[in-house]
Design a protein that fits this description.
Blueprint lengths: L2 H17 L9 H10 L2 H11 L4 E6 L6 E5 L15 H6 L9 H8 L2 E2 L2 H8 L9 E4 L3 H5 L2 E8 L2 E8 L7 E3 L1 E4 L1
Length: about 180
């Protein structure tokens, strides 16, 4: 990422941060920028989150380490990350009507993680997300070993997390990324 691209990304992130202060009312942009300056590997991951429609913003701060969690805050599951099965193993097992990829594979390539259920529920306290879409969530290994995975959405003014087979995919299901900085 060149200097001009980095400046443009930082301007977008700062504008979003300042426009949505209730998501992180105890933080100032200077604190966020300081953490980003110390973690240049995060720049590319955030650029990928932005490029795929995620609209990343800070939603949590770890009280012990001070790390900040950037998460996708687009109203719906990011448009550039939909129609994916859960992981690469599920993708390989599909013989017909294969999706273009997997949520876990794409997250790994982007250098991010799928939000877990607790992070997703926290995000939902900050606004109404996934009212028309759904998002794959990080899934406990014991559930994955049995062939299932978690996803979440908001319907009827409630946040739901459900299960589905890892090989399934839907045009309206993507994944929400998280990145600790």
């Amino acid at each position: 990422m060149n200097k001009t691209e980095l400046q443009a990304l930082m301007a977008v992130l700062q504008a979003r941060f300042e426009a949505h202060m209730p998501r992180h009312s105890q933080l100032a942009w200077a604190q966020v920028l300081q953490r980003l300056d110390r973690n240049t590997a995060a720049h590319q991951a955030l650029a990928r989150m932005e490029a795929t429609g995620g609209e990343p913003d800070v939603i949590l701060q770890d009280s012990a380490s001070g790390q900040l969690l950037f998460a996708d805050c687009a109203a719906e599951s990011p448009s550039g990350r939909r129609s994916l099965c859960f992981d690469e193993q599920a993708l390989a097992a599909r013989k017909e009507n294969r999706p273009a990829g997997s949520a876990q594979g794409m997250a790994d390539a982007m250098g991010v993680q799928l939000l877990d259920e607790a992070q997703y529920r926290h995000l939902q306290t900050l606004g109404a997300f996934d009212c028309k879409t759904s998002s794959w969530l990080a899934t406990p290994q014991e559930m994955r070993r049995l062939g299932g995975a978690l996803f979440g959405d908001r319907r009827y003014e409630r946040v739901f997390s459900y299960h589905n087979g890892v090989q399934s995919y839907y045009a309206a299901r993507g994944f929400r990324a998280g990145l600790w900085v």
